[in-house]
Write a structure and sequence with these properties.
The structure is a single chain. It is built from seven helices and 14 strands. The protein is an alpha/beta fold. The chain has a six-stranded mixed β-sheet with strand order 1-2-4-3-5-6, with helices on both faces. Strands 9-8-7-12-10-11 form a six-stranded mixed β-sheet. β5, α3 and β6 form a beta-alpha-beta unit. The longest helix is centred in the last third of the chain and has 17 residues. It is globular, with a radius of gyration of 19 Å.
């Protein structure tokens, strides 16, 4: 980098330089939008969050996905003004859905912005997929992590197909309620101005349940074999769903937390397929790559989204953004 103080703005300028269909906009220049604007009559979808998680959040702006994103400093929520701008710039006349992670600063500013925006109908859905962050009985307290991307996909597909604001909101809520994620890391992330990682781990340690800002996980132990670690991750996700004998169909997402070799992601994918198949859970689709990162954190997360006849087709609907394409 050049300097910590310029980290976010220089990164955003590079993002829009590389992807000409994106534009920096708004009073602060911290709102990223589609250069072509929002199609009239389509429900707009706005999101937002701190920097340091690319492709989350602004990497998913495009056809069949999102329309705008308010960007905060690294690991900080976006400002009130950037949230207002994101809502107004996502307005195509059919209402705007706010779809973002369950973090205090993000909630506060988006809730205020929804009252200040010029949009007639605004709805909000929060991602709450991190099973390690709160008990199942308190799901509303859970953090939104990589599983939020799956709600971007289904809600975005519904909006692109012409669904009304109530139906787009319902699809987003249904996807969030059906999605379960957990993270695993063996080295922590570090802020641009920091001299040490937020989570300082030993050279042979691994932490299960760690958050994307370095929030403490469920346990920290010596590193074990990949299969044993993936087994526990899948077990915790399926157990959190309840009804262990139910089976069903699911979308699997294996996410790079920032510094993990792609080969190792596929080792995890291989084992996840084996375990889910043994549990009679059919895998409708698998996504592998960097979807929600945490600077240079070495680790991965696994998300499972259970689908039905309504939501499964939405995952194969065409979509195009700088970091995710479905054809």
């Amino acid at each position: 980098m050049n300097s910590p103080s310029n980290y976010v703005d220089e990164s955003l300028s590079g993002l829009v330089a590389a992807h000409s269909d994106l534009l920096r906009a708004g009073q602060t220049g911290r709102t990223i939008v589609r250069r072509s604007g929002v199609r009239r009559g389509k429900v707009g979808i706005a999101t937002g969050g701190g920097s340091g998680h690319l492709p989350l959040f602004c990497g998913y702006i495009g056809h069949g996905l999102l329309d705008s994103c308010a960007v905060g400093n690294v690991f900080e929520g976006p400002t009130l003004q950037s949230c207002v701008d994101a809502i107004d710039m996502a307005d195509g006349g059919a209402g705007v859905l706010l779809l973002y992670g369950n973090y205090g600063g993000d909630r506060m500013n988006f809730e205020m912005a929804a009252k200040m925006a010029r949009v007639a109908a605004v709805r909000s859905v929060l991602g709450t997929d991190d099973v390690a962050s709160a008990p199942r009985q308190e799901r509303q307290k859970r953090r939104g992590v990589a599983g939020l991307v799956l709600a971007f996909k289904t809600a975005g597909a519904a909006a692109e197909a012409g669904a009304c604001i109530d139906d787009v909101t319902r699809i987003a809520e249904k996807t969030v309620a059906s999605t379960y994620s957990i993270g695993l890391a063996w080295s922590g992330c570090r802020l641009p101005a920091a001299e040490a990682p937020l989570a300082d781990m030993g050279s042979n340690e691994v932490e299960l349940g760690i958050g994307i800002h370095g929030e403490p996980g469920i346990w920290r132990k010596p590193m074990g074999p990949a299969d044993a670690l993936v087994d526990e991750m899948i077990e915790r996700l399926v157990e959190d769903r309840g009804n262990p004998g139910e089976g069903g169909r699911a979308v699997l997402l294996v996410n790079n937390l920032g510094a993990t070799p792609v080969d190792e992601l596929y080792i995890a994918v291989r084992r996840a397929h084996e375990v889910l198949t043994a549990k009679r859970i059919a895998i409708a689709q698998t996504f592998v790559g960097s979807f929600a990162t945490s600077m240079e954190m070495a680790g991965l997360s696994i998300s499972i989204c259970f689908v039905d006849r309504e939501t499964e087709p939405l995952f194969i609907a065409p979509a195009a953004s700088p970091f995710w394409r479905v054809q």
